[in-house]
Backbone:
């Protein structure tokens, strides 16, 4: 498993039970080599502009993703998971798409940090 891989992982649902769902490996996190992942859904209407990205069936890398339908990569739906939580690899996205997703997540977090700087009382 490596960054850019589309994996199946047992993710907790609203009812607390785990369900195998597709996720995207964003990066490997030291020191335990856990995986920072984000969720993938077919609920395209949940898209957050400038943060999430649609994988359309017409996209060049759709065929390598292993996804069964057009899907939405939800970069704000993140989790840190150990290797034991994965059921396997189903595919991968292009390096370009992976870079875009990391960049949009980083820009979103940087913008949130700027907005909250000095405006919140953290004591």
Residues:
């Amino acid at each position: 498993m490596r960054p850019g891989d589309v994996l199946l992982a047992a993710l907790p649902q609203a009812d607390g039970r785990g369900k195998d769902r597709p996720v995207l490996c964003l990066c490997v996190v030291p020191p335990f080599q856990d995986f920072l992942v984000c969720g993938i859904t077919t609920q395209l209407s949940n898209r957050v502009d400038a943060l999430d990205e649609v994988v359309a069936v017409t996209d060049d890398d759709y065929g390598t993703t292993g996804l069964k339908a057009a899907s939405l990569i939800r970069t704000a739906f993140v989790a840190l998971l150990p290797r034991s939580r994965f059921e396997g690899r189903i595919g991968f996205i292009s390096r370009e798409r992976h870079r875009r997703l990391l960049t949009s997540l980083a820009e979103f977090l940087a913008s949130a940090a700027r907005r909250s700087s000095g405006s919140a009382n953290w004591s």
In short: Residues 5-115 form a domain with the SH3 type barrels. fold (CATH 2.30.30.110). The mean pLDDT is 91. Strands lie at 5-12, 18-29, 34-41, 53-55, 71-81, 86-92.
